[in-house]
Amino acid sequence: MKRKLFLGLLAAAAVSFTACQKDEVLSEVPQDQPIEFGTYVGRGAETKAASIDNVSDLNKISFGVFAFYTGGNDWSESATPNFMFDQKVSIPNGGSAWEYSPLKYWPNNTGDQISFFAYAPWDADDKLTVSSNITPGTPKLYYSVDADVNEHIDVLYSKNDTKNMTKQSITGMIKFEFAHALSRIGFSAQILDDVVAEDKTGESDKTQTGKGFDYENTRVEIKEIEIKGGFVTGGVLSLNNPTTWEKSASKYDSFTIPASKLYNCTTNGSNTLINKTSLNVAGEKESGYLMVVPHYFDGSTTQNALQIRVLYTVTTIDDKLDGGQSVITNNITSDYFSFNFEQGKAYNFNLQLGLTSVKFDASVSEWKDGGDYAVNVPINFNN
After folding, report:
1. Distance between CA atoms of residues 55 and 74, nearest Å
2. What is the pTM (predicted TM-score) of this model?
3. N or C: which end of the chain has fewer CB within 10 A?
4. What 3-state class would DSSP assign to 69?
5. Cα separation of 294 and 235, whole Å?
6. Domain 183-355: assigned CATH number
7. Could you state, in order of their start, the residue ranges of all structural domains in the chain?
């Protein structure tokens, strides 16, 4: 589990005083006001169907907050998280509002400021750790990309400016707009029957196409998908400049998704095999994807280029065969290609599995005249 560090917090809430005298009209005095949080998850046109795309999804995982009390001064890189450090904020079961403990209060001194930074998920074990409570300046996230795709998580950061905040109204709250820090990779697949695979145009064969794909007797099953390339094993993200990753120098050669981690990877009644991978997102085993540190594969070397391999079988039911079926295993690898994974964008690779049916044709050759030949048959004198 992620190691939690604790720090003695500075007293941030001024004590409210009232001086009541008989027959005097009471003047309005400042009241201790708790700090409250609200959230929303940005969904720009570029983000598409994000893994955590609304507050309901965010509710499942909680988020962490850093807060800096700087008195009458603006936040700077010399400040330390002396008001909140990696504070868990969550919605309890059956609740409707974000809660945290211990509750903190706005300072009542005019001009006093607090700066906030937030990220999610709060508890991601050793996959996502944070800078210490004595480290001055911007809080940092240390993300470790797991070799097991089932352990990938969706890392979020608050992109709106919540620095140098002063005491808000009674109904006010700090609202974090969360955005996606990683690049998301998903896969889909479809059968292209009787098409020209060599030119990759998807145009129909010019030869006899027969009746097309035999859904009744043919089953296509994806056994494994591998995406090859030098994906970095981790990175560091500054919450004050979250658009740039400080990437790790070490790299993975590839990520492999076995059949057990694929959703709807078999077909014998549709031309769609996969509509999403079934991986782990922030502790919820549903609708997940590969989550990688953004990287540009320029194609200059095999380590800096992408390649996709898919292992699949084509099974045809035929009771005339021993075992009642024929099984063909295909292990197909794409050419190397360049690709740019950008932060906060979701990518889907559509695997087009070309199947060309075995076709038959027949013709009858005309008889050719072989010529006339005379054969002398001797007279049989023994009649």
Report:
1. 30
2. 0.76
3. C
4. strand
5. 10
6. 2.60.40
7. 37-180, 183-355
